[in-house]
Amino acid sequence: MTLQQLRYIITIVNCGSISEAAKQLYITQPSLSNAVKDLEQEYGIIIFHRNSKGISLSPDGSEFLSYARQVLEQTDLMEQHYLHKKPIKRICSISTQHYAFAVNAFVNLVSRQENEEYEFTLRETRTHEIIEDVKNYRSELGILYINDFNEKVLKKLLKESGLDFHPLFEASPHVFISSSHPLSNHRTVTMKDLNPYPFLAFEQGEKNSFYFSEEILSTVPKKKIIYVSDRATLFNLLIGLNGYTICSGILNRNLNGDHIIAVPLITSENMKIGWISNPKVHLSMFANHYLEELKKLIQIDGLKIYP
What would the CATH number be for the domain defined by 90-166+278-300? Predict the structure, then answer.
């Protein structure tokens, strides 16, 4: 085994194919395939399943990947300390539902980096795709919520995908509205108060089930509904159409300005927001730092953090 071979495995997983990984590594596809086969023979395991649709990690391969990441991370730290080598390019990928606090934590993480090179990815995406990203190693962790309504379905899907849910905090639902909205001077609002206004929700694509909705009370009938795919569009429509959306209530003025406010929604429902992970994957130092940034933001807002 060589460190280069371990880097090959990680690159293949990040790229999703041997051919694309070979391009990024500037080696031929046969050479890369042979390097993988040599590792498999040396350790007596199958790292990748190969079929007409491409490759996928085997159970042994998932475990091997976790060890490979740990070895390379520790090797890099040793070379920095003893050989004064420049740190290697850092790679970290996060998938999340459309939460301002998730973006804010990512901003804090990146702004505090002292490495000259890094490659971070933040995917604000659909609920089902978050689960798929973490399941298939495209992201180290994902951010989503569960509540009484969707818990049974989502936890079943997480279990089938071999993923764990780690609660971060519990939030009372709020609505995001513009600061000029007719209800902006209300201390609290009800669903009846909101009935005349457009409800804005994130579309979930083919998995357009109530259980995958990012907004609680998704089954409550609404007269006006607009589906969007990104947070910037949603915020523009909140202002332009006096729309509203249902959320955790955590806002950051540095990122979102003063034009959007959060008003408590009177309901017995709540949101348990947490992160999902693949227990077969060792979280990188940067993924752990991202979780630390999340917890700092939650503490600032005075919300209860789960152990």
Answer: 3.40.190.10
Work out the number of other CB atoms within 10 angstroms of the CB of residue 143: 24
Average pLDDT over residues 249-276: 85
Report pLDDT digits (tens) over 167-190: 999 989 999 999 999 999 999 999
Nearest to 85 by CA among 121, 57, 116, 39: 116
**Residue 87: pLDDT above 70?**
no
The answer, yes or no, to whether residue 273 has pLDDT greater than 60, is yes
Task: Give me the sign of the Cα torsion angle 275, 99, 109, 123.
Answer: positive
Confirm or reject CATH 3.40.190.10 for domain 171-271, answering yes or no: yes
Which position has the higher pLDDT, 138 or 33? 33
Kindly state the tokens that stand for 284: 């990188």
Q: Domain boundaries in the chain? A: 3-83, 90-166+278-300, 171-271
Tell me the CATH architecture of domain 3-83: Orthogonal Bundle (1.10)
**Please, which residues bridge with residue 160 across strands?**
none
Question: What angle separates helix 285-300 from helix 100-111, to the nearest 10 degrees?
Answer: 120
